[in-house]
Amino acid sequence: MFQIEEIIMCLVNKSSHPLESRIWLLVEPGDFIDGYSVISGRGAREAAEKGLTMPLWASLLLKLRNLLVKPFGLKTTRPTSGDAIGMFPVTYENGREIILGMPDKHLDFRISVMREDGRIHMATWVHPKNVFGRLYLAAVMPFHILIVRSALHRIGT
After folding, report:
1. CA distance 72 to 84
2. Are 6 and 100 in contact (CB under 8 A)?
3. Are 51 and 122 in contact (CB under 8 A)?
4. pLDDT tens per residue across span 118-151
5. Which listed residue, of 76, 77, 94, 121, carries a Cα 20 to 30 Å from 64's Cα?
6. What's the predicted TM-score (pTM) here?
7. How does DSSP assign 34-49, residue by residue?
8. What beta strand segments (E) does 84-134 contain?
9. How confident is the model at residue 8 (pLDDT cuts 50, 70, 90)?
10. Among 9-23, 71-85, 89-103, the least confident range
11. Any long-range contacts for 59-62 (C-beta under 8 Å, 24+ apart)?
């Protein structure tokens, strides 16, 4: 079973995020942005809803993260009002793209999910505000890659 999932995960490609995405309006020198894509017939919102429904292992990692960062005053809960998917508030949406995310004390981040040419593209933008933001980004990066690739795997199936 593990080998089959590994083969399917290869269908998730590291890719440039479409230049038409509004997320590019946020990017400044020193920011982090990555991009992955997968073939999918889903729309942007449906893809975001499917991809951001976390599997158990990712939910457990998020709970651990919340326990570790709560003493530092970082956000650990989902918004109580407004449009949100999972714990991420929707900050922009049109027919092809949905952007989710929020500012925090240590960094700002957004996730763009965009449909283009039969593919769903997902990009994560992070703007570290201080040294703690850069350290946090470095600490979560290995998990980030696993979670994003897993999300796109779910979107593509």
Report:
1. 24
2. no
3. yes
4. 999 999 999 999 998 899 899 889 889 988 999 9
5. 121
6. 0.84
7. EEEEEE----HHHHHH
8. 84-85, 88-93, 97-103, 107-116, 119-128
9. very low
10. 71-85
11. 61/143, 61/147, 62/87
